[in-house]
Design goal:
Number of strands: 16
Radius of gyration: 43 Å
Mean pLDDT: 78
Oligomer: single chain
Distance between the termini: 119 Å
Shape: globular
Structural class: mainly beta
Length: 537
């Protein structure tokens, strides 16, 4: 039961205004929030952070004469610590001088009754020294030297362009690059190069006719061959520039390989008899064209003249091939040269080529019908995956009533890690009226390549192939449908950039019963040991 003293105490508490009882604690809470805001702001600045949220406006506390009688407030010399908050939990009986040191104001502000009425300025919180920020220096500008030869991967990096910048072909992000503006002189970029390729093929069957059957290019057995004495004069167009440019190229090939790249109407007549060449060695001009570049869109180049076909993986040019010998698809399914025009442009990671030609291996057409040549190439951003799909369609027979012949080629290249690379190729071709009994001749097959880079000088490779000549129109002398297989393995040694030594072991066989295309027509398989040397100059 509550006694008289307790009743008196309850009456005093009830009669006392709430503002008088909790005024000091309320002011302590306001001071604590103000101090906490100051400390967080200063710490964020010193830590390199950015205080993006605006501070709330300070609230005004009720005026108390005790502030005026308390005297000047000392200025804090360092940021407050969390340990300073201990006195903020004082009871209502604590004097105002216990928390006066926490007030972020000057003595003049306290004496004038303007406590917490001044909003924070742009220089910091009133009462605290402004936080000085060290201005960040501007990023250094990359200076590119003016020199005749520019390494674009080193100077500008690798940029992957897309058709989004087609409206501004002279932008620095895509299209042309800095330093490539302005027309070049007529002799700027003109250069010549060449190589000498010579080798020897050992046939274990030692055929009396000294030929390796359906194997061409290195077609002579147990005999030295000068395959290619190659000369090239070229002026490549500036496909990275922002101006029109004109270039061209002319190739001359002397050697045993020349008889395979001759064109009707140029090196041979309409009946394919040679004009000036001998039976085994001769001179050919596999390429002679003019090229024009236009900066329209993403850049468009146009070839006009005589040039190599774009089908397949292997090439006539010896330094571009790993093996000395060639696949059956390259020898019999694909044309070597074309005559006409061919345009090329880029759309992002795609390269698109299209044009009109006079047919397969023709300088002069035998029926005056134009054919189509085109393809789409795609490469991944890191250039580890490449896909090429090309088609060549033309009317090959002299009779204009015959249907169009066509060849399709699909090549897939994939890098497997740092040292391995795999290549797959598939071709399909047909020629109406060229087969046995004027039937449609077809040819198709599959090539598989696997390469391993040992080091900068040594590289190993393997090739497996299946080729089918349906109708007997592709392989000379077959006159029947036949399947051909070959397995090759070899090693390349490159002691310098001007010298390449290629060695190869090749096994050919046929899967057609009763057909013996090797060893003077007496064997269904053969083994070849090949070696050649390429000297570049």
């Amino acid at each position: 039961m509550v006694g008289p003293a307790g009743l008196m105490a309850l009456w005093m508490i009830a009669a006392t205004p709430a503002s008088a009882m909790f005024d000091v604690d309320g002011r302590n809470d306001e001071v604590k929030r103000a101090i906490l805001r100051n400390e967080v702001f200063i710490r964020g600045k010193r830590a390199g952070g950015v205080w993006n949220a605006p501070l709330p406006p300070p609230r005004m506390l009720p005026y108390d004469p005790a502030y005026e009688s308390a005297g000047p407030v000392p200025q804090p010399s360092s940021p407050l610590n969390k340990s300073d908050f201990g006195s903020l939990g004082a009871t209502a009986g604590s004097s105002s001088s216990d928390f006066r040191k926490f007030l972020p104001c000057t003595a003049g502000q306290a004496s004038s009754g303007t406590l917490f009425q001044q909003a924070p300025s742009s220089e910091g919180i009133p009462g605290l020294p402004p936080v000085e920020e060290t201005p960040k220096p501007p990023p250094p500008k990359k200076i590119i030297e003016r020199r005749d030869i520019i390494n674009y991967d080193e100077d500008f990096g690798e940029a992957f362009c897309s058709d989004e910048g087609a409206g501004n072909p002279c932008g620095y992000d895509c299209g042309c690059r800095p330093g490539r503006r302005g027309l070049r002189g007529w002799f700027d970029g003109v250069c010549w190069e060449g190589w000498l390729d010579q080798g020897f093929t050992l046939n274990t069957l030692s055929p009396r006719n000294r030929t390796n059957g359906p194997v061409t290019f290195n077609n002579r057995s147990n005999e030295y061959q000068l395959n290619q004495l190659y000369m090239r004069l070229v002026r490549d167009v500036d496909s990275e520039g922002c101006d029109w440019d004109v270039g061209g190229r002319m190739d001359l090939l002397y050697g045993a390989d020349s008889i395979y790249v001759t064109a009707r109407g140029l090196e041979v007549r309409g009946d394919l008899s040679p004009k000036w060449n001998a039976q085994r060695y001769g001179l050919a001009m596999p390429q002679c064209y003019m090229e024009v570049y236009s900066p329209w869109g993403n850049g468009l180049s146009m070839k006009l003249g005589h040039f190599y076909s774009i089908l397949g993986y292997e090439s006539v040019e010896a330094p571009k091939n790993f093996f000395y010998s060639h696949s059956y698809l390259f020898q019999y399914a694909e044309p070597f040269t074309e005559t006409g025009f061919l345009g090329e442009t880029r759309l992002g990671d795609f390269t698109i080529r299209a044009g009109m030609t006079r047919g397969f291996n023709n300088w002069e057409d035998n029926n005056n019908d134009m054919g189509f040549l085109g393809g789409i190439n795609w490469a991944s951003r890191n250039r580890r995956t490449k896909i090429a799909l090309c088609v060549d369609a033309a009317r090959e027979q002299a009779d204009p009533s015959t249907n169009v012949s066509s060849v399709y080629s699909l090549v897939f290249q994939q890098k497997l890690g740092r040292r391995w690379e795999c290549v797959l190729q598939s071709d399909y071709g047909n020629e109406p009226g060229a087969g046995i009994d004027r039937s449609t001749a077809k040819c198709y097959g599959l090539d598989t390549y696997l390469f391993y880079t040992i080091n900068d000088r040594w590289k190993a490779g393997m090739r497996f192939e299946w080729f089918r000549d349906e109708g007997g129109a592709r392989v000379p002398g077959a006159n029947r449908t036949a399947d051909y297989f070959e397995l090759s393995s070899g090693v390349n040694w490159t002691p310098s950039e001007r010298l390449i030594v290629r060695s190869e072991l090749r096994w050919d066989w046929t899967g057609t019963t009763g057909y013996s295309p090797f060893g003077d027509g007496t064997r269904s398989n053969q083994v070849l040991l090949n070696c050649d040397v390429i000297v570049r100059f």
